[in-house]
Amino acid sequence: MIDYKYLAQKYDTPLYLYDFEKIENSFLSLKNAFKGRKSLIAYAVKANSNLSVLKHLASLGTGADCVSIGEVKRALLAGIPSYKIVFSGVGKRDEEIEEALKLDILYINLESEAELQRVEDIAAQLGKKARVSIRVNPNIDPKTHPYISTGLHENKFGVEIDTAKKMYLAAKKSNFLDPVGIHFHIGSQLTELEPIKEASAIVADLVRSLHKIDIEIKFFDIGGGLGIKYDNEETIKPYDYAQAILATLKGLDLTIVCEPGRYIVGDAGYFLTKVLYEKKSGDKRFIIVDGGMNDLLRPSLYNAYHKVEVIGKTGDETPADVVGPVCESGDFFAKNRPLPSTSPGDIIVVYSAGAYGFVMSSNYNTRPRPAEVALFKGSDRLIRKRETFEDIIKNEIELMDE
Q1: DSSP assigned state of 224
Q2: Is 327 a catalytic residue?
Q3: What are the boundaries of each domain within the chain?
Q4: Would the CATH topology of 4-15+267-393 be identical to that of 20-263?
Q5: Exactly one of 1, 327, 397, 399 is catalytic; which is it?
Q6: Stated pTM of the model
């Protein structure tokens, strides 16, 4: 049992907690699901990029799926080897591409014909051959929130099948490109298996057609997106997920690259916030807390559901909105949620906050970002200090004289 009150008192609030044993179990469950085939679990750094989290995953043999050169550097700093790092993302700057090539990572995921040309030009300038993969958009509806859907033509990610074929042919002819992989990722927080299997089958058929024209794809990158339980979702079991993918790859000798993020860290994270007071407005009840949307954006951004609990309180529950101090009507963690009566100083825990929590935090309203704490084998350890006002302003240019 996690002693939330003790940790809130020790480290203050708002506060992020990460259960490293849960992270480890989730990672290994997915790794073991693919153990019968050549595979690489490349953790999606964007979900939670704390260096201690990355270092722990590195000790378990993880790779890294990165969407900026900063994430690539974080992965390397945490001990993830360059040959296990994939660089994805729609808009890579020339300097990022150049640095990734110099760091000799596993491959760069290409998202457009224009990007293929930029990578080829930069590789030529460096006199290097760039290992690349092409992100294919299979036009499959992932049945998830539209903001985290990525596999339809209306989304900005990837290219259509016909465009992908043209890009592979161009890469094969190039002296500076080595087309080693193929990639798809239809969305995040996926809870239905059929769209994943359907997308995999489409992309596997493309690989077969490429093999017929001597383009030997080695890496079959299935992206990530496995969902977790925030409310009452029926989630996909790792074994079923792996078997669905493998069923589409008959006759193909490929290394499967899987890029989970939320699945690894999501339900291993907890956000603690302190009750300041309650407020009534007509029949409306508000519980006002010291955490805000700048600390945990998902409820405001996606209208996402997170389970909330008032620690140590029981009794009659009445509907309440849990809201923060940020000057926005969208600053809330829960709406119309049955909760017991609270007093100043009570601790509220927001569950399943390990993914897309701290990484999406900001200093809006000049609010310092929270501390982060690791929980492992019965001990707790500070892994990121709470920001101060001085931290927030340290990079601002000196005030101009009038």
Answers
A1: -
A2: yes
A3: 4-15+267-393, 20-263
A4: no
A5: 327
A6: 0.94
